[in-house]
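Check this.
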Amino acid sequence: MFIAQLFEATAKRIIVTYPGRFQPFHKGHREVFASLQRKFGSENVFIVTSNKTDGAKSPFNFSDKVRFMHAMGVPDGQVIETQHVYDLPAQFEPIKDQVVFITAVGAPDEKRLAPGRIKKDGSPGYFQPLPSDSKDFTTADQHGYVIIAPESPQTININGKNYDASHGTQTRELWNQVRNDPKQRAEFLQQLYGRTDAELGRTLDKIPTGAPEPVEPPAAKMKNAKKDLTPVDGKKPAKKPAPQPDSELGESLYQYDKQDPYNSEFAPDVGMGRMTLRGWKQSMIRRVKEFAADLERSGQDLDKDVMWDQVYKKLKSLNLDPIAQEIELAHQELERIRRRGGVRSRAFKQ
């Protein structure tokens, strides 16, 4: 039985998102997506990802990702482009009081979203652990739920050697090692995508060559793969320590961008996920403009007392005051870091 069927009696639809960078998307991701569909229903599960590219770390745009997804049999209707991958997709916002929202993430993202967190004012945060009883679910206008996405470890065997292809960094580095050998190139495509598709190969060729990518935190060891996977060139990579979090960063500032502090991410304590400082300010401006347009349209036909009552309710619903406070906290955090020797950015003049 699909979990979604448990909600039929209450007329609530379930929306499950599977967010990620997917650099690149491959059969391991497709297997996770399929397992979520089996559990929650094929029409209720959506892959959400952005169009953002970032050199060697994120060379594929949204169209590239969709090309990989199509190769794996993922239909267009279950793929959503968004900059805010942890939020309820925008097309469901108008009915958020009628749907149950679940996001399926990896363990690191589960820690970032912190389901069950209590806010400073004592109220529960937006994201909560998945209840065991469907009667305890609330709709997306009140809470979203977080589950750990099932893992699907992937290995590729090329010339009799096994390689870890479970995560993006290893997959991209491995492609750069085999890309100029037609036989190894074909083996890579066949094992990771089930076909030797020239178009997929050309898309993978967007991965920059040259210096190795920065080492990401080590993934959990795979149960069914060899502990020591030998790279194509026969040399074992030197072990490097996982990067440690910056202990000087406060709760509001999530990730500090030294090159452009205005691009730093922070997690406001208003249950709305995380964004860059620049993105939050743009969001506030957009909300105010939309509110002004609504007010102009409705104010022409409404009684003055009714109109001001609607103004008050609308302003309260926008959450502008707590958002502004959190932006100010993030500004102060960035300024403290800059004074301690952080990189000065022109963004501070904006």
In short: The chain has nine helices and eleven strands. Residues 213-230, 240-252, 343-350 have pLDDT under 50 and may be disordered. The longest strand covers residues 13-19. The chain has three domains: 3-148, 153-237, 253-349.
